[in-house]
């Protein structure tokens, strides 16, 4: 399974509850250093993976990882024009990898990874389709032929998150039926019949509840932080970032749900050693990152983030109301807004392909106004708006902000 959703966790005990929060039905853990583990999660049912295939599933990234060496990376072609990017840092899976996308999306993922790449003195192994990148050149090896040389390690096997309530109820009914079958006396049989009736009623009630309950795929926005939470968490960290570290000038801040990445540009005469030493005074728990191999003119740091998810997902309006509200707000602020709708899709529920009752639009919001001054509740109804990334860049002594996210609407 490629393209898992990865999160960092302190210790191993919370992996299963974390996967439950993200509505995953399979997860895997891997050591990430500093007493932390990486948790990879997937929803096999939403991905239309059969039950038999799900039981045998494994993380493709952890399977391929040994072939990358200590600091290698690879881009592999998948079906239907999609590509997969995976990378290693100091022998561990990079949290910036295990990404599936179109060619442009994969190039952006690679650029982000290289910007914060860990320096390596050893020659790295690179897999890359011929002509995909102008440079560097890598081994053009199909994914199938690479997998033929590898075995699936035990740590790559995906584990089940939980057993569904309906299955437990059915086991209870089956147990009661077996008990009545082996009952000896009529009185015992009567008691067992009473239990069977009660259990059957409970089972039918649970079954009816399953029919009326909304599966996670029908409300995907509940697995993403609300707009105010995303803005507040990112802003709180980057506002305290220094504009200069050992003469290195601040250049960009890149905030995602799981991490904030800050970058500074090297001045004339600056050294990576000076930057690392001064950075440790600001962020003692983090390591300096540089674009090495490369020009070594960008230094940065990646700070882990935790954003809480909504306890109860809000209702969203129809597409006309949603898109017009966001467009109106952008026009009021004279911000640049682009909206593109994703193709309609369906999800397997109880063995049937059910059309999803929502529409999702990707949006990009460009402005010179700081995000903490945007989207005030009294000015903007943020129902159905979710942010996936905020980029801050310094140009000509002014900060510029790019907000990327999803806009959900009822179909």
Description:
This protein has three domains: 5-160, no CATH class; 165-212; 214-411, no CATH class. Helix content is 29%, strand content 28%. The protein has ten helices and 20 strands. Strands 10, 11, 12, 13, 14, 15, 18, 19 and 20 form a nine-stranded antiparallel beta sheet that branches. Strands 4, 5, 6, 7 and 8 form a five-stranded mixed beta sheet that branches. Strand 11 (248-255) and strand 12 (259-265) form a beta hairpin. The chain is globular and about 95 Å long.
Question: What is this structure's SSE topology?
Answer:
Blueprint: E1 5-10, H1 15-21, E2 26-33, E3 36-42, H2 51-55, H3 60-68, E4 73-77, E5 83-89, E6 92-93, E7 99-101, H4 103-115, E8 126-127, H5 143-147, E9 159-160, H6 165-181, H7 186-212, H8 227-238, E10 244-245, E11 248-255, E12 259-265, H9 272-282, E13 289-290, E14 298-304, H10 319-333, E15 336-341, E16 346-349, E17 352-355, E18 358-367, E19 385-395, E20 398-410
Helix pairs in contact: 6-7
